[in-house]
Amino acid sequence: MNSVNKLLKALGESTALKKNEHILQTAFQGIGNAGSKRWIGNIVPADLLKLSVKDAVNIIATLSEGGIFYKKFPDNIETPNYGDKWGRLANYIEINDRAIAIMDNGCTCSGILSCIKLLPAIPPSAKSWANCIILSQIWQNIYGDAYEKGAFEENSIYGIRLNTSYSDNVIDYSVADKISPEEQLKAFVDLAHFRGLKAGFRHVISADQIKVATADGDVTFDWCNPEHQELYINECVKLVNLGFECMFIDSAKHIGGYDCENYTGVGDLPEYSQMQYILYEIRSRSGRCDLSFVGEKSTDDFERYRNLGLNAGTDFITGDDFHKVRDCSEKLKYMRDYAPGVEVSNDNYSGGLNYEQKLNRINTALFAYYLASDKLPSFMQAEDLFPLRYDTNTHHLMMTNPSYSTDESALSHWENLFAKDDGKNYNRRAGELFAWALQY
Q1: CA pair distance 88, 309, nearest whole angstrom
Q2: Beta partners for 219?
Q3: Which of 128, 199, 365, 424 makes an SS bond possible with 192, Cβ 3.0 to 4.6 Å?
C-alpha cells in the first residue's frame, strides 16, 4: 500500500477517492497552454486547513493536471521532470509547517498534515521551471519541540536535534503505530509531486545550533568529529530517499569562514572542502544527480558557490526593479549550474512591505527575463501568497511558536493567524500573476 493510502487508512478514512466537482468549477487555472494546471485561489488558508486530510486528497486528485481522476491514489508517483539542473531556475516557496500545525491544549503537532491540506493552494510548476516547497522544520528543535509558547518567548526553529525521530511539531504521532513518521513525510512528498511540485527542507549548519541525541543525553554537534559528519550526511540521505529533492542550507554563504564578520549563527561551520565532500556524498549515496542545494545568501563570487555544489543562492537581488533583474538574468544566462536568486521575502522578513510591493516583487520573479530558460531562481515565503495578520511576521514565527486562537481550538488559530478579507483579495491577485506565468 502506498504512503498516501496508508495515511488515509491510519486516519480512519476510506482509500476510495471522490471527485470534487465544485472545485473544478472554481479553481484557478493557467492561461494559454497552461490551462490544465489548476489550483485553489482567492482563499485564506483556514478554508483548506479546516478540511480533513481525506477532503484535501480528494481535491488534489480532482486537480490532476493530466485530467485523469484516480479513484484511488496511484502507487507510482514520480517527481516532475525538469532535468538535473532544475534548481537553477526554480521558484522556492517556504512554508513554516510548525506555524500551521494543529495547536491544541498547549501542544503543537501534525504540521505535515496541514501542509498536505495547503497543497491545493500552491500554484503548480510552469512549462519551463519548477515550483518547490521548502518546509521550515523536519527534525526536532532544541528549544521546546511540540509545545506552544508565548508570543515573545523563544522557541526558535533555528536549532535542530539529530539522531532521533522527526519533530513532534510536524508528525502526527497519534497514528505512528499505523503509519511511521517517515511514511507520513513520504505521503506529503508524493502528493506534492502529484501536484507538479518539488519538495525540500530547510536546516541549519551552525554547530552550536545542532544537538546530537545519545544514550547519555544530548551533545553539541562538532564538524571536526567524523561520526557527527557521517550522521549529518546519513540524516540528509534518509530524507532524500523519502523523495525530498532540495536542501535549503542556512548560513551557507559563510561556509569555510567566508565573510564571518556578518555571520549571525552560533558555532563553527564546515570547511569549504568538507562541505563539497558532504554534498557529493549526499548525491552519491542517494543515487540522485537531480538534487538542488540552495545556499542562504549569495554574493557576486558565483564560482565559489557553484564549485561548492550549490545550484541557487538567496538574498542577492530583490524584485523591486524589474529591469535590473531582467538585465541580471541576461548576463547570467550562460551559467547553467548556479545562479543567485530574486527575493520576494526571506525567513528573516520582519514586515514593512505593503501588498503592492510584494506583488511587484512576485511579478518580477516570474517575468523578469527575455527567455524563460534564462530565468533566475526566486525565493518567497508562504506569507507572500497568504498574508499573515498585521501584528506578526515570518521571522517572528520562526523564532516563537504562539497560538492565535481565541478559544484554544486549532481552527481559531488558523483563522486568526492570517489576514482575512484583504489577505483573500491579495491571494487572488498573486494567483493571477502565476496564472499568466505558468505557460512559459
Answers
A1: 12
A2: 212
A3: 199
Place of cell 539542473: 85
Environment class of residue 263 by beta-carbon count within 10 Å: exposed (0-12), middle (13-18) or buried (19+)? Answer: middle
Reading phi first (left if > 0) and then psi (alpha if -120 to 50, else beta), residue 261 is in alpha
3-state secondary structure at position 304:
helix
Record the cell numbers describing residue 304, joined without a space: 565559489
SS3 210: strand
pLDDT for residue 104: 85
Neighbours of 422 (CB within 10 A): 12
219 alpha carbon, distance to own chain's centre = 28
Task: Please tell me the predicted confidence (pLDDT) of residue 144.
Answer: 85
Q: Determine the Cα–Cα distance for residues 382 and 347; give it in Å rounded to an integer.
A: 10
Q: Look at residue 293 in the predicted model and tell me its pLDDT.
A: 98
Q: Which residue has the cell 491544541?
A: 104
Over the stretch 343-355, which tens digit does the pLDDT of each residue have? 999 999 999 999 9
For 231-261, give the DSSP string: HHHHHHHHHHHTT--EEEETTGGGTTTTTGG
- Which residues have C-beta within 8 Å of that of residue 352, sequence separation ≥ 6? none
| Gyration radius of the chain over CA positions | 20
Q: In whole angstroms, what is the distance from residue 310 CA to residue 59 CA?
A: 35
**Mean pLDDT for each 10-residue chunk of the chain (440 residues)?**
98 98 95 97 98 98 96 96 98 98 93 98 98 98 91 93 97 98 98 98 98 97 98 98 98 95 94 98 98 94 96 94 97 97 96 97 98 97 98 97 95 98 98 98
Query: Could you tell me which of 364, 376, 394, 388 has the C-alpha nearest to residue 314?
Result: 376
pLDDT at residue 105, as a whole number = 83
Residue 335's alpha-carbon distances to 146, 177, 194, 252, 316, in angstroms, are 43, 48, 30, 20, 15
Of 321, 347, 391, nearest to 136 by C-alpha is 347
- Which letter does DSSP use for residue 317 in this model? E
Which cell numbers in the block locate residue 129? 521551471
Distances (CA, A) of 277 to 212, 237, 251, 307, 338: 21, 14, 17, 11, 18
Which residues, at least 6 apart from 239, have a Cβ–Cβ distance to it below 8 Å?
138, 185, 201
Cα–Cα dist 49/362, whole Å = 24
Q: Angle 83-84-90 (CA atoms, 0-180°, nearest 5)?
A: 75
Question: How many residues appear in the chain?
Answer: 440
Residue (of 114, 240, 238, 94) closest to 172 by Cα position: 114
Quote the CA–CA distance of 437 and 124 in Å, as a whole number. 11
- 8 A C-beta contact, residue 86 and residue 290: yes
